[in-house]
Each structure stands twice: as C-alpha cells, then as structure tokens.
Design goal:
The chain has 204 residues and is of the alpha+beta class. The protein is built from nine helices and six strands. Strands 1-3-2 form a three-stranded antiparallel sheet. A three-stranded antiparallel sheet has the order 4-6-5.
C-alpha cells in the first residue's frame, strides 16, 4: 500500500461519511487523478483480500463502508434497526423520480393516475428523495430528485448505473406527449402546480 493509499484510507475512516473527491485531493495534497488511482487501488485491494470493508463511490464522493455480507452482524452490534421495506406505491414513485428527475409531484400523480402526496412525503422522510428547486411556471411547483442515500441504498455509484428504462407503455407515452405539448405551449412541464392531498395513500 502506498503512502497516498494509506492516507486516503485513514481520512475516509476518520470521516465516516462520503467525502467529495476534490476535497480529499486537497486534504492529501495531491491531484484529482492521483487520488482516483489510489481509490481504485484500495477498492481492488479490499476486493482481492475479501476484506470486511469496501470502498464505495457515490457519484463524485468516496466512502468506506462495511460489506453487505456483514450488515446483519454490524447492525446487531450498533443496535440499529433494520430499515423498513418500501411499499409497492413507494417503489413506484421512487422509480419515476429516479428515471425522470427532476420531476414535480403533479407529474408523478398524472403518470400513476392517483394522488402521490403521502408517498412523496414518506420518501422524503426516509431521505431517499429531496427537493431540487421549483419549476419556473405559474404556481412554481416543487421539483424532486433522488439523494445520495438513494445511491447508497441501492448500491450504485451514480444514476448512470440504473438499469435501462423499460419500453414505455401506451398510457405513459400518451402522457409524455401531452406534457411535451404543454411545454411547447409555454405551460412548462405541468402548469397546475402542487395541489392539496385529496386522498390518503400508503406512505411506504
């Protein structure tokens, strides 16, 4: 292990959370390229030796974490509860946000055909989605996107690693065409903005 690799390991261990690559390079007084090479070497070393820890890349951040194989044992030691599973409704909304982000809640509602306010709130509470500004249309509806926790939860480094989007069904294709027409007419993605919840839905 080189001095840079050892230094990177020490810094990530001390941080305990994901750290931006540029910040790591500055702290270790090296270039971004050299830092990424050291990270790749550490990742390969941990995998080759089947270590209990692994180096995880989350878009432009790096983090040390325990391997999923030992998650149950680690959870028992830290006395943390197993995170609740997501309901079908929550997974459906999360999928829409992941592939179409940033999106408004009204877009999600129209795509699903039901009110999704409760599910969106539940996903935000779990930290899987977050606000990403507002759309510049009347009503200024909130835009939503996935979070770093989403990447970590589904064990991917970036959104580019998501599976290919299935072929759109006829109803979704029609809806997207309607949304495109609205944009062409100057109404933006959706012009109705966020509306109060009218029906209760399982938050997942």
């Amino acid at each position: 292990m080189t001095e840079l690799e050892a230094g990177l390991e020490a810094v990530l261990f001390a941080a305990g959370d994901a750290v931006p690559v540029d910040r790591l390079a500055a702290a270790l007084e090296t270039s971004r390229g050299a830092l990424l090479e050291a990270a790749a070497a550490l990742e390969n070393l941990y995998d080759f030796e089947n270590r209990g820890i692994m180096l995880l890349r989350l878009e432009d951040k790096l983090q040390l974490c325990s391997r999923p194989l030992y998650a149950d044992a680690a959870r028992r030691v830290t006395e943390s509860r197993r995170p609740p599973s997501l309901s079908p409704a929550a997974l459906e909304v999360l999928t829409i946000v992941a592939y179409r982000q940033p999106v408004t809640r009204a877009f999600i509602d129209q795509l699903r055909g039901v009110d999704s306010g409760g599910t969106v709130a539940g996903l935000m509470e779990k930290g899987l989605i977050e606000e990403a500004g507002r759309m510049d249309v009347p009503g200024r509806p909130i835009l939503y996107r996935t979070t770093e926790l989403f990447l970590r939860t589904f064990a991917i480094s970036s959104l580019s690693e998501l599976p290919a989007l299935p072929t759109l069904g006829e109803s979704e294709q029609v809806q997207l065409e309607l949304d495109t027409s609205a944009q062409d007419a100057g109404g933006g993605q959706l012009s109705i903005g966020d509306t109060p919840d009218s029906t209760a839905e399982e938050t997942g």
